[in-house]
Amino acid sequence: MTHVVLLSGPDQSPLPGLDGLERKARLTLATDETSLRQSLPEADILLVTDFRTDLLERAWPDQPKLKWVHAASAGVDRLCFPALRDSDIVLTNARGNFERGIAEYVLGAVLMFAKDTLTNLHLQRSRSWQHRDTETLVGKRVLVVGAGAIGAEVARVLGAMGMRVTGVARSPRVQPPFARVVGQDQLLEQLPQADYVVVTAPLTPRTRGLFDRHAFRAMAPHARFINVGRGPIVVTEDLLHSLQSGEIAGAALDVFDPEPLPPEHPLWTLPNVMISAHMAGDLVGWERRLGEQFMANFARFERGESLLNVVDKSSGFITNGR
Q1: CB-count burial class (<10 Å; 0-12, 13-18, 19+) for 126
Q2: What is the domain range of residue 88?
Q3: pLDDT tens for each residue of 150-184
Q4: Residue (of 311, 236, 276) closest to 70 by Cα position
Q5: Which residues are known to be catalytic?
Q6: What's this model's pTM, rounded to 2 decimal places?
Q7: Same domain, 140 and 262
Q8: The domain that contains 108 carries what CATH number?
């Protein structure tokens, strides 16, 4: 019988949506290094819902029997440590569960900036009546850094609002709904033209630290920065300086480096910043959908069929679709 190990945090509830798995496989729950070390050497499949990278890397067996690792997340950067990355083990992710939620989050952030909602809330708390003009979205220019499934859904939603959306990918290509997609080597050239810069890219060696002081200085002073990708894509102290100095006009941040954002960090108190707790894609029912997605791929595994959402472990990008 196929042996499935579920790596879950000690405080996490069991992943819903795995109905019937215990009848089809031997299922072992691992919540700490000891239980993971005991169960992993004989496992065929590893389902990861807890992304404590050092734990999995420390417990990794010398000669794993694993055939498949599934990440119940869109990002797989925390799983691509050398032993797994350089192996023949198939890695899949949860593409298809987060695109719409993240796109709606980005639209909400854009509307928040355009309609000056942060100021409205501040004035409401102080009971201060101040009439102001606000902006429209029509014709505004958006640069979406990351032209994968999430970035494309962001482009579709913002494009429907009359915004002009350019994508940034590893290389240029024609890809509706983007007006165009340019290569990452053109990032600094494109940044000054954008009213909004949205990061949806995965964390890879090429994107780590991509947004540093040079990138923020290239942005227009009126531009707003939205990060729904990964925290380490941004050099946090450079972003903080740009916001405090007025180099950029504001930021909406769902991911951070470090994460969680420490309570004493200055980003919490900046008036032009919205902070959320890595939740942009988590729509009601998302955990059950993750479980059901794994079960659908598990059925393919049992039938000997190709798995969906296979990730190129060297780049962090999907090699096949849903």
Answers
A1: exposed
A2: 3-97+284-318
A3: 999 999 999 999 999 999 999 999 999 999 999 99
A4: 311
A5: 230, 259, 278
A6: 0.91
A7: yes
A8: 3.40.50.720
Asked if residues 213 and 206 have their Cβ atoms less than 8 Å apart, the reply is no
Q: Which amino acid is at 78?
A: R
- 97 in Cβ contact with 281 (< 8 Å): yes
Helix (H, G, I), strand (E, B) or coil at 75: coil
CB 248 within 8 A of CB 221: yes
Query: Do 109 and 253 sit in the same domain of this protein?
Result: yes
Over its C-alpha atoms, the chain yields an Rg (Å, rounded) of 21
H-helix segments, the chain? 21-24, 33-39, 53-59, 82-85, 99-114, 117-125, 149-160, 187-190, 213-218, 236-245, 286-303
**Shared-domain flag, residues 134 and 227:** yes
Residues 112 and 180 in one domain: yes
Q: Does residue 133 sit in the same domain as residue 150?
A: yes
> For the segment 56-65, what is each residue's pLDDT rounded down to a tens digit?
999 999 999 9
Q: How far is the C-alpha of 243 from the C-alpha of 270, rounded, in Å?
A: 8
Looking at the 3D structure of the chain, how many domains does it have? 2
